[in-house]
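Notes taken during the Thursday session

The instructor put the following on the board and asked us to keep it in front of us for the whole hour. The protein is 7-cyano-7-deazaguanine synthase. We were told not to look anything up and to reason only from what is written here. First, the residues (234 in total):
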Amino acid sequence: MSDKALVLFSAGQDSTTCLAWALERFDSVETVGFDYGQRHGVELAMRPVVLAALREAFPAWAGRLGEDHLVDLGILGRISETSLTRDVEITMQENGLPNSFVPGRNLLFLTFAATLAYRRGARHLVTGVCETDFSGYPDCRDDTMKAMQLALNLGMESRFVIHTPLMWIDKAQTWALARELGGELLVDLVREHTHTCYNGDRSHRHDWGYGCGTCPACELRSSGYRRFVAESAS
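Then, after some discussion, the predicted structure tokens were revealed:
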């Protein structure tokens, strides 16, 4: 397989930063997104918007940014009783995880991404999972990613490499990484076009971007942005 990369891309802050990271490192980069019946389905509408904005703002990356793919995983939403796939309040469960946790989501995402990468001749899989500033999801942890890489390579007799550029950095450092990769132009693009809010709110504009401002995803993003701004000023 070649040094081509496939980025798991949701049009959120993290996956957009990871896409920029990949575009800096690989000559050929494709993207893949997943429609799993998420209640914040607006992220699917923002995917082409973010990709177009990246191509326009960064001509050097535009030549490396190839085909975008969207995979229908609606069955995941239909069998998941979670606050990301049902119109219910986000709460903590007895097992210590928020009910926004969609069991198996990242495992399925990586399996389908690897299947696509196998066909497309891409060796590198890039995903924005993180276990520093996160909601405690077990399928975002480093041990899970290492296990998935092993399983995929054994099961497909391949040499995939799963890259997790954000694994050990917090949200403030993720904002800083975006600036390092693409300057204030990329930071502004992330603020204006990416979508993180679990409630799918694109009507409320904050200094860190659009969202309800109260869901766990908005809280992580906003607090990270405030720390980023404060650290940049000091």
